[in-house]
Specification:
Rossmann fold, 8-stranded mixed β-sheet, 14 strands, about 25% helix, about 20% strand, binds adenosine-5'-triphosphate, binds iron/sulfur cluster, binds magnesium ion
């Protein structure tokens, strides 16, 4: 190699991650010799086939401590009026009181329709946004409260993989510069050690380490995503937020990248918040799944429970749209549950249950009282007054005793609402049994 490699490897980091559309793409098509995929969507990837190659679905470690505990997290984006004096006229309630835990070395999937707040949740955890409220406890620190400078030493522990491998890599920077940038920013290794570390990382993600001085445009979509993964790994993170990490890739490449993420997780004990539309991918990668609707978690639980025994009408509808999810979650039925209407505006969400404008089971109480995210099983929580498996939704609300209201949602004079099982991001040892309406446990 004739050039000084470190001259190529990351010093100007100011533009790393800038949008390609802003900076303009270089046409390097004459140099492309490594394309291995095509950006077409046909059919879902065959995640059953992964098992044949030793990539069985990731399993749940019940003993794992949480690496992050998110409690009542909120992000309200101000909506400004037009005109010279721009006043705040409302708020987009993108994330509104979300609570969950991600186990150390484990993965929680976050699913839901477009605009429900998945990416905003991920961006809050990586502190790309400062939350409006709530807490995010990570190794004794509340990430929600820290200033930018206080965040700096912690930032290396929580990194993000972005959806679009085309726009998330700066086309003007070499791969070495992109992957090495975090090392330079955090001043972690001496300058002359940056290149060897970059090459090591490229190898770890399955790229040719000699390609460090190429530009993103010289790589295919799958390879660019590997570059994004290498960048996220540079600082040895303990938690990775993967925001739709494979949805922009060709189906044949999706499985490879998911395999890579699984290998990395096992090798480096990395925890994942795995955000995705694709419920088949999430089922493979995540032993636990949270379902979001309009800024709130409506159901959360372990994989078998969510995919086999979903209790929320929204989860049931989502699952019914997945061709290969055909078990009890949809009552053994194969037909799709049609969701009527659009997702309401997060600026002015419906009162009570936010899903009520599209829910076939909605009754009076649903407009009056917000259903709490109630623990109803060992590792299962649901926010629905009429929670039940499809075909077995109760005729009367299950939440009235807990909330001290009658079947229509009006307060019962003298009733004492019980907060048991209604709060807290993790799972309690006891829960509310829907049949007996008693607290129970193992
Ligand atoms: N910076 C912002 N300013 C104002 N509103 C925002 C901002 N970012 C997101 N939103 C709004 O917050 C809501 C949640 O957006 P978010 O991107 O988190 O959804 P998502 O679940 O990731 O959707 P998708 O599946 O399409 O990626 C949307 O209504 C969106 O328009
Ligand atoms: S609380 Fe009511 S509106 Fe909301 S999901 Fe349950 S039944 Fe539907
Ligand atoms: Mg998103």
């Amino acid at each position: 190699m004739s050039q000084d490699p470190n001259a190529k490897v990351g010093i100007d980091v100011s533009e790393v991650g800038a949008n390609a559309a802003e900076t303009g793409e270089r046409d390097l098509s004459d140099h492309v010799d490594v394309v291995d995929d095509h950006e077409a969507f046909h059919e879902p990837p065959d995640f059953h086939a992964l098992a044949e190659h030793g990539h069985v679905a990731t399993q749940l470690d019940l003993d794992a401590e949480p690496i992050i505990t998110v409690d009542n997290l909120k992000m309200y984006f101000p909506v400004k009026s037009s005109g010279l004096v721009r006043r705040t006229v409302g708020h987009v309630q993108a994330v509104d009181g979300v609570s969950f835990q991600v186990p150390r070395g484990g993965s929680l999937g976050l699913v839901g329709e477009s605009g429900c707040g998945k990416s905003t949740t991920g961006r809050l955890i990586t502190r790309l946004y400062k939350p409006t409220g709530g807490s995010m406890m990570f190794e004794g620190h509340d990430l929600a409260k820290l200033s930018t400078s206080e965040m700096k030493p912690l930032r290396r522990n929580v990194q993000m993989i972005f959806q679009d491998p085309y726009t998330s890599l700066n086309p003007r920077h070499t791969v070495g510069s992109i992957v090495g940038a975090p090392l330079a920013v955090h001043n972690i290794v001496p300058k002359d050690k940056i290149l060897p570390r970059v090459q090591e990382l490229l190898e770890v993600v399955g790229l040719n380490p000699e390609h460090y001085n190429r530009y993103p445009n010289e790589f295919s979509g799958g390879q660019r995503q590997r570059i994004g993964i290498a960048r996220a790994l540079t600082l040895n993170p303990k938690l990775l937020v993967a925001d739709e990490p494979v949805s922009a890739l060709d189906v044949s490449i999706q499985a490879q990248v998911v395999n890579l993420l699984q290998d990395l997780q096992r090798e480096f004990d990395i925890a994942f918040l795995f955000i995705a539309h694709d419920l088949a991918v999430v089922r493979h990668f995540c032993p636990e799944v949270a379902v979001m609707y309009l800024g709130k978690i409506v159901e959360i639980g372990d994989r078998e429970t969510i995919y086999g025994h979903a209790h929320h009408p929204y989860t049931q509808a989502l699952l019914s749209a997945v061709p290969d999810v055909k078990q009890a979650a949809i009552g053994g039925r194969r037909e799709r549950i049609r969701l009527e209407g659009d997702v309401p505006s997060p600026i002015n969400p419906p009162s009570g249950c936010r899903f009520r404008t599209r829910c076939q089971f909605a009754q009076e109480i649903c407009a009056k009282v917000e259903p709490p995210l109630l623990q109803i099983g060992k590792r299962h929580k649901v926010a629905c007054h009429f929670a039940g498996e499809l075909g077995a939704h109760p005729a009367t609300p299950v939440t009235t005793d807990l909330l001290g209201v009658d079947d229509q949602g009006s307060p019962v004079p003298g009733a004492t609402p019980s907060n048991t099982q209604l709060t807290g991001p993790g799972y309690e040892k006891t829960w509310y049994d829907l049949r007996s309406k008693q607290t129970t446990g193992v």
